[in-house]
């Protein structure tokens, strides 16, 4: 059975786009272990049944990539058990633009730009946050873990893609996993509208292959490969060794 189809989606009430980030073959001949890392959208809509079923995955760490305003408006639903919640926002707050255009610029997650612009911004700025998430996964007792942002496609997408690439997963498999978010969010059936943390209705946009391949190409241009990208942004060699031992 293909590991790329909709059957990979885990249906739990109140959480969108949930799936296992493992199961992929690597260039070393090993396979990324399953049931150690999950990816999803936010947990603020979890039902009591959903929280119980999510807790049954045995999660020890939940990494939230959203901004502080998003957390304030939509805090994650608590889970039973000893679960460590970490807030490691992907986006730094946008600064004001240059003096000749001093209008306020909202955070990148506000969606006021194209997805291509958004991914270029993440390519330029997200390295420290991605590295912090990867380091957190290497901490003793951190696994199984869940990484999520608002809907689990863009910020979660680049974070998981970087880790999988460092573990030796092919670009083709990374793209297939990444593209599954369209099915997980219903974007393959048309636009999905939502209200953002500022109360403004927006349209969620489907991802496409060029976004994640451009992101991976960018980190290779600047650092050579995903491993050196992570090391350059603060992940240590022992942490990478720990992750390889756990996942492969």
How many domains make up the 3D coordinates?
Answer: 1
State the helical fraction. Answer: 25-40%
Task: State the fourth-level CATH superfamily.
Answer: Protein tyrosine phosphatase superfamily
Portion in strands: 5-15%
**Backbone shape:** globular
Give the neighbour order of strands across the main sheet. 1-2-5-3-4
Q: How many alpha or pi helices?
A: 9
CATH top level label: Alpha Beta
- CATH architectural type: Alpha-Beta Complex
Please count the beta strands (DSSP E, at least 2 residues each): 7
Order of helices and strands: EEHEHEHHEHHEEHHH
Mean pLDDT: 89
Rounded to the nearest angstrom, the radius of gyration is 17 Å
CATH topology: Protein-Tyrosine Phosphatase, Chain A
**First-to-last CA distance:** 20 Å
Structural class designation: alpha/beta
Biggest sheet character: 5 strands, mixed
- Pick out the low-confidence regions: 95-111
